[in-house]
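Record Response regulator transcription factor, 226 aa.
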Amino acid sequence: MKILIVEDDPKISGFIKKGLKESGYEPVALANGQEALDHLGVDKSYDLVILDLMLPGKSGLEVLAGMRAEGLSTPVLILSAKRSVEEKVEGLQHGADDYLVKPFAFSELLARIQVLLRRHQPQKSLPTSLAQFGIKIDLLKREVTRGGKVIDLQAKEFSLLEYFLKNPERVLSKTMILENVYHYNFDTQTNIVDVLVCRLRNKIDKDFDHKTIHTIRGVGYVLKDG
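=>
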């Protein structure tokens, strides 16, 4: 991923550039605000801009305002020695996505970069249906079929089957099922998982020769063919 560093302090710029290269990014460094704005007008392939506020040519806020005026939605992380709340708010109001005060640890800068990049990645469209081993579920209609037969499931049974279908042939422990189906992150000291699996198995496998829900003793359960 390409990252533009706009910083006129060569030590800071070099420090960031070296760290980003070592982290697998493709950094480019510029030291002049006007030059940076002109460059961004030509090369729109950057995934993120790290922008100092105090720059020759144009200030960081002017660069940011120019970017947004030109319709560039590239995420911008401001670096600045200005630390007052008012100055941070001003930067964010001009269209910045984050604000990091100097001096900073590179680990924090990298973490913020990773958050911004994840936030601005195109969202993948979610599946509307799932199918494995002859079992099909329509996530929009909340309908389950196997071999053309409609199977009526309760809410938790449906959630458990969806979890199985998203993880075929993977052993799911009781703890994993508690966390992903019941959203419990602690041991309930009950057999609710066993009961739920039993109910689902009776509905999904009872009338079919090939069984799909299998118990792995002492470990958990797995959805597989036969």
